[in-house]
Amino acid sequence: MDSLRRNARALRNRSTDAERQLWRYLRGRQLDGFRFRRQVPLAGYVVDFLCPQARLIIELDGGQHLEQIAYDQRRTAALVGLGYRVARYWNDDVLMKIDDVVADIHRHITEGFTPPQPVRPAGIACGRSSGRKLMACKRPSSPPSLCGREGANSNSNSNSRNSESNSNESSEGEGE
Q: What whole-number distance in Å separates Cα of residue 109 and Cα of residue 53?
């Protein structure tokens, strides 16, 4: 194992309080299903958090970063040159304003993000594949339990039963 990967592993094992706090919100695809990795070797550096799908790097800065501004600028320029976006947050903000930080990260991962589109195999017509319909990607505007079909069927059935029983009662009453 090369030294950069060993260093990344050591950093994962010695996380700061701010890194552990933020990782609770990023791990397990909790943020809109985006996968994050922590302490990832990339371009000769170890980045704090990486979302490969959104090409976003998150860096947490402590007080030592005030003394190494030029280094951080070179590092950010190198990562941006590879097509990544870099978002930086102070450790104190993560520890004291975690909801604001997570909301800002969410904004970063979703702004300008276009999910990869499935590739249609050649020769298959749009909307059909081997006689079966392809599923639409559109989400329903309301939960299934509130959709018009279910409500209409249950209401119309109960109304028609009520009207049948009412008409039966009225016709029975007329015959007597």
A: 9
Q: Where are the domains of the chain?
A: 3-110
Encode pLDDT of 140-162 as tens digits: 444 444 334 344 444 444 444 44
- In this structure, are residues 60 and 48 in contact, taking their beta carbons and an 8 Å threshold? yes
As its CATH architecture, domain 3-110 has 3-Layer(aba) Sandwich (3.40)
Gap between the Cα atoms of 84 and 51, Å rounded: 9
pTM, rounded to two decimals = 0.61
| Alpha carbon distance 92, 127 (integer Å) | 51
Mean pLDDT of 74-86: 94
> If DSSP states are collapsed to H, E and C, what string results for the chain?
CCHHHHHHHHHHHCCCHHHHHHHHHHHHHCECCECCEEEEEECCEEEEEEECCCCEEEEEECHHHHCCHHHHHHHHHHHHHCCCEEEEEEHHHHHHCHHHHHHHHHHHHHCCCCCCCCCCCCCCCCCEECCEECCCCCCCCCCHHHCHHHHHHHHHHHHHHHHHHHHHHHHHHHHC
